[in-house]
Amino acid sequence: MSLLENTQRLDAIFAKAPLLPVISIQREADILPLADALAEGGVTTLEITLRTALGMSAIALLRRERPTLCVGAGTVLDGRQFQSVLDAGAQFIVTPGCTDELLTLGLESPVPLLPGIATASEILMGYRFGYRRFKLFPAEVCGGIQALRAFSGPFAGVRFCPTGGIRQDSLVDYLALDNVMGVGGTWMAPRAAVEAADWQTISRLSAASVALLQER
Ligand code: 3PG
Q1: N or C: where does the chain have the smaller number of CB atoms within 10 Å of the terminal CB?
Q2: Is 47 a catalytic residue?
Q3: Which atom of ligand 1 is nearest to the CA of 185?
Q4: For residue 52, what are the CA distances in angstroms to 49, 74, 131, 201?
Q5: Is the pTM here over 0.90, yes or no?
Q6: Which of these is catalytic: 108, 135, 195, 215?
């Protein structure tokens, strides 16, 4: 895909669903009920990370069994993982940082890449390739809302999905920024709730975040 298509596809994904739960699967049995709990609350786009050994098979399972969801891959660190998540059916790819290898692969990729950045220099690294959409990571650590406001000066036309430290009580402030297209994080599926298979809590938390979006 061209970089223009990359940008358009990411814009379409985040326009439909600005909340991006970041999920690390610890038990195979959690995959479908967790996704269903989020969907029940109105959250239908997910980032499944490769931080656990089950990440890859979770992407494949969700693509097969829950075709109406939009399933992205996260924590993709290198070219080998990039190819593997494509093979598993990932509909978008998120990386915590950017390397020449990943940015080059994103240019040829059939699905959009959202490269991670934390500094102006890293934005420029992606910018040189043509990227205009980035994950800001770890958002709260590297300046959060103030950093995003500051980036809007030199980087007109660039938009971000901040991730890392975002919570239910801060998501509206992030999304109020013109250069924020979505927010990612774990607050809708906290680890303790997943470990307890407490799917009701996950549905409730995701519904509460969706309600905040609608109240804006
Ligand atoms: C991550 O990639 O680790 C995500 O940013 C999740 O961070 P959070 O737990 O602070 O939401």
Answers
A1: C
A2: yes
A3: 11
A4: 7, 11, 28, 23
A5: yes
A6: 135
